[in-house]
Amino acid sequence: HAWDLKGKVSDLEDKIRSYQTRVKSVNQENEALKGSVAESQTKAAQVEKRLEKQQNQIRYYNNFFPCETVLSYLWISEIQSTSRKSRRKLRSKMFIFWKRGYFYFFFSLQMKLSVQESTLARVQATLRDTEEEVRCLKETVAQQNDDLHAGEMERRRLHNTIQELKGNIRVFCRVRPTVTETLAFGCVDHVCFTLQHLSYHSSGFQSHTGKTTDTQKNYNFSFDRVFGAKASQQEVFEEISLLVQSALDGYNVCCFAYGQTGSGKTYTMEGEEFNENRGVIPRAVQQIFKAGEKLGSQGWEFSFTASFVEIYNESLRDLLYTGKASKRPEHEIRKSANNEVTITNLTYEKVSNEDQVLGLIALANQNRSTAQTAQNDRSSRSHSVFQLDIEGINAGRDVKCKSTLCLVDLAGSERLVKSQSQGERFKEMTAINGSLSNLGIVITALANKENYIPYRNSKLTYLLQGCLGGNSKTLMFVNIAPETDSFGETLNSLRFASKVNDCVIGTASANRK
Ligand SMILES: Nc1ncnc2c1ncn2[C@@H]1O[C@H](COP(=O)(O)OP(=O)(O)OP(=O)(O)O)[C@@H](O)[C@H]1O
Question: Which residues are recorded as binding ATP (predicted)?
């Protein structure tokens, strides 16, 4: 069955590739057509100008040389005059008029006029032809635009089919490099991995329960992808970029990183400042704006709203807050009548380019580090949720889409030894364990298609409700540290991730109107 699906996926990918080539050539044809329409319009404008000039010339001759009128007047006066003297006078006037060449001028003017009239008729016929040509070209352009739109809709459908075939919930495992080893595949300490399988064996070191194992035991796990220690940020992002495209096509997308402190969650989600080490969030933002701009040429107009929130000890904190610390507002999660989840008093920032979002991420980091200084190691004990609300409208086609891209860096999943955790630390531990285990419960309930899903049991699941339910595509990273002393925590993370991987979330449907 799996091979069957893989075959289907590769068929669909071929189809998409051929479709993209077609869309590209239609685009090129369109550009050429646009050029020829513009040329025809300039030609028509020139012809019209020439025509107007000629008509003005004719009008000018008629106004300034009324020879016909003068001669008629003289002739009629001559016939009507009674005296011979006056008749002679008039005849001599007519003679002078004729002598001065006015007659010649009059006739040549008449000839010119008839030539002009035939030119005018010809030019008018050419103008009619050109107008017809322009109309045909406009029709072709409209037809091409229709084809382009149909192509884009077909691309969305195919893209979504591929995502569904790959599964609406996917789990990727990423092994953090140790200080000395950076293997693509193979074994780091007690972890051996290939492209989709990971085996973990436990001989000769202490497990998290404190027992030393003397017999080797293998734990095998399968995921949608396993990224070795050598996998670059770009390689990791390539797999996610397809989901990011889905967010722009109107599907809710949620990507979260799970794992113990120091296993590489923040490195995966945010990465470093340098270009090639940038993580999922900056890369996703870049892709969204680039793809949005491209769709702009097909009549789509997008608006984006960003928010960044931290969940610490089951309370929410706005990471984009810029006011006085003493006036920080309280926040509540609310669900609107149309099932949209919002947070009260939260900063929802309208953004229109990548730089603005990167500025907001820097502000969030600043806000987090302020809290971090006050409270040591706080960031690894809080969940941080970045959300980008995307609204797209294609007014010409009366199509709208709406979705949310949700990128989450979860709190460290490690369990503290009970006797060591007291006071604040115990409270934190309870909050983290509560929300992470509720995340597992929610996903299991969704997988079992239970009627009641306990989203409200923790702030995290309540907030991520839209991204975890049926109408979404979810990707979970399980980040693991390969070192021997992380054995217990790594095994826990792998087990949790395995449970998520076994879930089948209902087929997502695009929020399109
Ligand atoms: N794939 C990787 N390649 C290179 N360095 C990595 C990788 N993953 C993690 N690191 C490094 O390991 C260290 C710990 O990673 P990181 O801070 O991302 O862990 P974390 O799980 O987010 O921890 P915390 O819960 O404390 O936030 C960092 O110095 C990071 O740069």
Answer: 259-266
Find, among 283, 251, 243, 246, the residue nearest to 155 by Cα. Answer: 246
- How remote is the C-alpha of 427 from its chain's centroid? 40
CA distance 184 to 230: 5
- Asked whether the beta carbons of 473 and 246 are under 8 A apart, the reply is yes
Pairwise pLDDT comparison (418 vs 262), residue with the higher score: 262
What residues does CATH 1.10.287 cover in the chain?
A: 16-146
Binding residues: 259-266
What are the pLDDT digits (tens) for 404-423?
999 999 988 877 654 455 66
pLDDT at 513: 46
- pLDDT (0 to 100) of residue 479: 94
* 443, burial (CB in 10 Å: exposed 0-12, middle 13-18, buried 19+): buried
Task: Judge whether 346 and 309 are in contact, CB under 8 Å.
Answer: yes
Q: Is 319 exposed, middle or buried (0-12, 13-18, 19+ CB in 10 A)?
A: buried
Q: Which of 188, 260, 266 most suits a substitution to test ligand 1, by most atoms within 8 Å of the C-beta?
A: 266
Stretch(es) of the chain classified as CATH 3.40.850.10: 167-501
Atom of ligand 1 nearest to the CA of 174: 1
Question: What are the tens digits of pLDDT across the range 137-160?
Answer: 778 777 777 777 777 777 777 777
Classify 167-501 by CATH class. Answer: alpha beta
Q: What is the CATH T-level fold of the domain 16-146, as seen in this structure? A: Helix Hairpins (1.10.287)
> 248-261 burial by CB neighbour count: b if 16+ within 10 A, else e?
bbbbbbbbbbbbbb
Residues in contact with ligand 1 (CB, 6 Å cut-off): 176-177, 259, 261-267, 379-380, 412, 479
CA of 501 to the centre of ligand 1 (A): 23
Task: Convert the pLDDT of each residue in 298-348 to its tens digit.
Answer: 788 999 999 999 998 888 999 999 988 888 899 999 988 777 888 999 999
Answer yes or no: are the C-beta atoms of 251 and 160 closer than 8 Å.
yes
- Ligand 1 centroid, distance to 97 Cα (angstroms): 106
Q: Whose CA is nearest to atom 31 of ligand 1?
A: 267
- The ipTM is 0.96
| Mutation test residue for ligand 1: of 267, 483, 489, the one with most atoms within 8 Å of CB | 267
- Average pLDDT of the residues of the chain: 77
Q: Whose CA is closest to atom 27 on ligand 1?
A: 380
Q: Is this model's pTM higher than 0.90 or not? A: no
Distance 220 CA to ligand 1 centre (A): 24
Q: Which of 143-157, 285-299, 421-435 has the highest mean pLDDT?
A: 285-299
Atom of ligand 1 nearest to the CA of 479: 21
